[in-house]
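Q: Could you write out the predicted structure for this multi-component system? I'm mainly interested in how the pieces pack against one another.
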Amino acid sequence: MNYVVLTIFFLLSALTLGSGIMVVTVKNIIHAALWLISTFVGVAALYMLMEAEFLAIVQVLVYAGAVSILVLFAIMLTRQITGTGTRQLHSRWWVAMLTAAALFGGVIVPTVWQQGSSWDKTASDAQAILVQQATEANGGTRPEIIPVAGTEELGAALMGEYLLPFEVVSLLLTAALIGAILIAFEERTRRRRVLTLAEELALRKRGIVEPHDEEGAVVPVDAEQAV
Amino acid sequence: MTLSTRKGTVNIVEVNRHDNNIHAGQGTLKGLDIVFRKFRKALFGKANTERDDTEGQFNVQYPEERLVLAEAYRNMPILLYDDATGQELCTSCFQCERVCPPQVIHITQAKHPETGKPVPAAAEFVLEYDTCMSCGYCAEVCPFDAIKMDHDFELSTADHPALDVHYTHLLRPVSYYEAIAPTMWAEVRDAALKKLQNNIKRRPGNIGVDHGQKIAGKSSAAAPKAATPAAGAAGRKQYTGPIAKVGTSMSEDKLARLMAIREANTGKRGGPPESGAHAIEADVATNAAGQVAPSDQATSGSAASKATGPVAAPGKNMSEDKLARLMAIREANKAKQGE
Amino acid sequence: MTYWPVIAVDAWIGLVLVSIIKVTLILVGGSLGMMFLTWYERRAIAYMQDRRGPNRVGPQGLLQPVSEAIKTMTKEDITPLDADRVVHFLAPVVMLGATVLAFAVIPWGNLFPSSLRVGVLFIFAVTGLHTVGMLMAGWGSNNKFALLGGMRGVAQMVSYEIPLLMALLPIILLSGSLSLTDIVTRQGDWYGFGWYVFSPVGLTAFITFFIAALAEGERTPFDIPEADSEIVAGYLTEYGGMKFAVFYLSNYMTNLALCFIMASLFLGGGNGPGVTALGTVLGGLLSLVYFFIKALALFFLMVLIRGTVPRLRVDQLMGFAWKFLLPIVLVNVFSTAIWVAITRWGPQAQIFTDWFGEPASDNYLRYGVAIVVTLIINLLAVYAVMRINRRQPSDLTEEEIALGLAG
Amino acid sequence: MVGTIPIAWVLTLAAGLFCIGLFGALSRRNTVGILMGIELMLNSVNINLVAFWRYLRPMGTAGLTFTVFTIAVAAAEVAVGLAMVIAIYRARQTINADEADTLKG
C-alpha cells in the first residue's frame, strides 16, 4: 500500500464530494456555482492521479474555465443573484433525497462492491496480457513502467479510429453554438438605443428630432414601427 | 507634414478618420516608431536645456537642480522697505486690501501719536499666506510699489498659524527685490523712491521705520543666493543654498541651531564664509552701501546701482536673441532715466 | 495490481521537499521579478514621455517597489459592509494561485527544464482560471463598477483565449509536442537560431499570439476591465492594501509568465549562439541570460505599445478578436499544415520528393518553396480580412453621416 | 501510481457524485441549479470512463476518446441550456422551473 497515494486520493475525494454536496445545498446560487468550480478542479486532479494528463487539463480548460463562467454569466444575466429569501429547493425535495440515497445505497454500491473482485480479476488478466506484450516489445525484459496511452495516442485515435464520431461531435458543437445564439438573441429593434448628448445635439442641429419615451430616452423610428 | 520652428523642423504625422492610405496597422507602426525615438532621445540624448526644445529629457531633479525663475514669476506677496533708511514703502492706502479677491490682506493704519490723525504708514499688516492665491492683483494695484511678489516658493510648514504672516515677516529690503527682479524694479524705481520721499516727510518720529528695524537682515539668506545663480550646467543652477528660508516661523534657539549647522556646512563645502547671524549683518552693510540713499540724489545714483547691483540673473535660461532684446530694453530704460 | 512500481516512502518525502523548495523559489522569484518588472515598466514609460521615472529610492530607484510593497502591506484592510466576505477575500487568492501554477511548467533557460508532457496546455488552462477570480472579485465587492469590470474582463479573456490557443496550434504542429521543454529543444538548429519566429507561419503566429497575450494580461490597449476613466478601477475598485497588492502581483506575474512563454515558444527560449558549445553548466547559464533578455525585450515591446496606443472601445475589442484575429489564425493553421507537408513529407507524398528531393534539414529547396507558399497564403489572408473589415462609405449609419463622421 | 487504489473506490466516488448531482437536479427550483446538477452527473460519468480506461485498457484510447466526446457534448448542452434559461427569463421574468408551467411563449 502506498499511503501517500491513498492520502491524496482521500483528500481529493473529500474535496470533490464535499463541494458537490455544497453545490446542491447552498442557498446562494452564485456560491453554488463557485463550489461547482471547486468540484471540477477536484475531478481534474483525480484525472491527473489516474495519469490522464490531457483530460485533466481539458477538464480545467473547458469546465472550470468556460462552463462555470457561462453558468455564472447566466445567473448574473437573469438577476436571480442571491436567492436568499426565496426557496431554492421545491417542496418535495425529500423525495429527491430519498431517490438519490436509494440509488446510491441500494443499487450502485452493492453492484460495485460485489463486482469489484471480478473487475480486479479481469483487470489483472488484462494487465498480464499488457505486461506480456510490453515485455515482448521491450526485447524479453519486463519494462519497469507499463506504458499508458498519452496525448499522442489520443490524437492519433481521434484522427483515425474515431474520425467519424469526432466530426459528428464537432458538427454538434457548431449546431449548439448557432442554436444558443439564436435562442438567446434579442432582436435589435426591440433594444432602446440611447444617444449621447453630443449625438443628440448634432441631430437636433440638422433638424432630425427623434421621439422620446416617457423616461426621456430616444426611441428610434424603426423601433416605433416594430412596436 | 513638417512644421518648421526656429529649432528646425518637426515631423507631424497626420492621420485622418477613414483614411484609405493608412491601413494594415501602418498608423500603429508609425506611432510606435515615434514613441521609440522619443525614448531613445530621452535616454541617450542630451538633457533638455532650453524652453524651445521639443525632445529630450525634460525632468529637472528638483532639490538638486533648479530652473532659474523668470523675473515675473510670482508666488507670495512681500512688502518692501528702503535699505538705507529703513523706511517702509507702504502707506496703508488700502488699495490692496480692497482689490484682494480672497480678502486675505488686513491693514491697520498708523496714527499720529499726538494728534491721532492718520499717517501714511502701516501700523500692522497681516497677510494670510494659506488663503492667498498668488494672483498678484495687490502688486498690480499698489500705487507706491510697496507690495511685490516674491520668488520664494518653499513655504511648506507644519505650523499653520505661522501662515498668518505679520508685517515684520513680510518686509524685505528693496535690494532683495532688485536682486530677484532687476528689470521690473528698474522700471518703477525712481517713481517709487520719489513717492517714498514725499511720504517720509509726513511720517512723524519713528513711524514707518519701527518694523524695519526689527528684521533688518531678514532677507539676507535669500537675496545673495538669488543673485548668484552661476554654478551648474547651462540653465540649471546647482543648488547650494539653504533649504528653508530663515526665521519666518522659527524660535530663537532653533534659528541659532540652524545657523550653526549652516556654518558647518559652508565650512565643509569650502564656500564663502557668509552665513549665520554674521552674514546677516554683512549683508545689511552691503545692501546699505550698494543702495544709494533715496534722497534727492536718486536719479544720479541709479546708474551706479545698476552697475554694482546684482544683474547676473538674466541670460541663463534665454536664447541669444531674447537676451539681446532684453539688453536693448535695459539700454532704453537706462537712457530714459539718464535724461 | 502489483505491476505498477511502488515508490518508497522516503523517495516521496524527497519529492515533496524538492517540490516545496521549487514552489518557494517560484514564489520568491516571481514576486521579485514582478517588483523588477514594475520598476522596469515605470522607468521605460517615463523615458518614452521625456521623464525620468522613479529614481530616488535605492540605486536608480530600484528599491521603489520595495517601499511601495511596505506601504501597501501596512495599509488598512477594508472589506465593504455589504460585500460577500468570503468571496471578496478569496478572489485575490484565486488570481494569484492561477498565476503561480502557470510558472510551474516554464523552463528557465536550459537549466531548469519542466517535465509535464502537456505543459503548454496546462499554462493556458490555469491562466483561464483568472476569469473565475475576476468574476469573484467583481461580484463579491457588491459594487456596480466592480461587477461591470469583472464582466468586461471575463468577456475579454474568454474571447481572446480562442485566438491565443489557435495561434499556439502552428507551434504544436511544427514541434510535434505539447511540452515546453521539447518545443525549446527543437528550436536549437542552425547554430541556435532555428527559432520558429523566423518562418512565415511562426511569425504570423507570434504576432497574433502577442496581440492576444496583451489582452490576456490586460495590458493597454486592452485594459478595458480596469479602464479607470470609465469604471473607476474595474473589479479592483473595492480592494485596498494587501489584497490590492496581491491583484497587482498576479497581474504582473501573468505578464512575466506570458513573456517567458512567448520567448520559449517563438524565440527559441534559451537557445542562441554558443549555448551548445559551452557545455551543460556554462551553456545553461548563457541560455538563462538569453532567455531573460528575450523575455525583457518582449516586455519592453508591451510597454512601448502601452506608451503609444490608447485604450480600445469594448465593441472594437470584441470585433478585433472575432473578425480580425480569428480568421487570420485559422488560415495560419492551414498554412502551417502545408509547411509541414512540404518540408517533412517524404513517403507520404511522393510527388514532393520528385519535385524537391528528399526531406532533410539541409534541403533548402524545400524550405524555400515552403516559405514562398505559406507567405503567399498568409498575406492573402491578411489582405482579405482587411478588405472585408474595412468600412465602406455605404456602411455608415444615418446617425454617423448626420454627425459628420463620414469624411 | 494509482494502482494501489482499488477500482471499486473510484467507482464509489463517481457513484456518490452522480447521486449528489441527481439530488440537485431533482430538488432545485432554479433552472441554473438543475443544470449544475446535470453537470455533476456528467462529471461522475467521466470519472467512470477514465477509471475503466486506466484500470482495464491503459494502452487503448477508447476511454479517453469517449471522455473527450462527453466533455464536448456537455459543453454544447450547457450552452444551449443556458441560452434557453435566458430566453425563459426574458419571457417570464423568472427562471424557477415550477413557475414556468405553461406552454404559451
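A: Regarding packing and overall arrangement: Confidence is low (pLDDT under 50) at residues 213-249, 271-315 of chain B.
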